[in-house]
Write a structure and sequence with these properties.
Low-confidence stretches: none
Number of strands: 8
Radius of gyration: 16 Å
Structural class: alpha+beta
Order of helices and strands: EHEEEHEHEEHE
Mean pLDDT: 93
Distance between the termini: 11 Å
Helix content: 25-40%
Largest sheet: 8 strands, antiparallel
């Protein structure tokens, strides 16, 4: 796990709320605090979507950020900065096997229960933290280190300036 301070908040927020930079992640949960706190449960409600077979995400547990982003933007935009917000993102389950393969990790994808990226803002400071969850306990930090490296590369490739906290 690593904690990163975002050095320039305004460009990050453009990536986060306007661009598609984070659209490949699923949203597990989130909250935005302005004049009250708005909470978001990212559990995907399959029954809300069409049942005509056109939706290809029926095996998804959490909603893609791309489907929530504009709603969050509506909550956050305006003249006043929110007091706080926090979002918990996950790499979609279907992307885990590719992540393991590209990282050179010989592990069955079913052993990975989550690869997380937490985005939190409070007191005018924006911080990202990474996290992993495996089905069984292990002292081996190979997956943790690979996920941390992936996130650092993800940010660097998008020119998002961050420093370890």
């Amino acid at each position: 796990m690593i904690a990163l301070n975002i050095l320039d908040i305004k460009p990050f927020m453009k990536h986060f709320l306007v661009g598609s930079t984070f659209d490949s992640f699923d949203l597990s949960e989130g909250s935005v605090t302005t004049f009250c706190t708005f909470s978001i449960d990212g559990t995907y409600m399959k029954e809300f979507d069409d049942s005509d077979g056109e939706n290809e995400d029926t095996d998804r547990a959490f909603i893609p950020w791309s489907r929530v982003r504009e709603h969050v933007f509506t909550l956050i935009r305006g003249k006043r900065t929110p007091l706080a917000f926090k979002f918990v993102f996950m790499l979609p389950k279907k992307a885990v096997p590719r992540f393991l393969e590209k990282s050179g990790i010989a592990m069955d994808a079913s052993e990975v229960t989550g690869l997380f990226l937490n985005v939190s803002f409070r007191s005018r400071k924006l911080m990202l933290t990474t996290g992993t969850s495996l089905r069984t306990f292990t002292m081996d930090r190979t997956v943790d280190n690979a996920w941390d490296s992936y996130i650092l590369g993800f940010l660097k490739s998008r020119e998002i300036a961050a420093e370890k906290a």
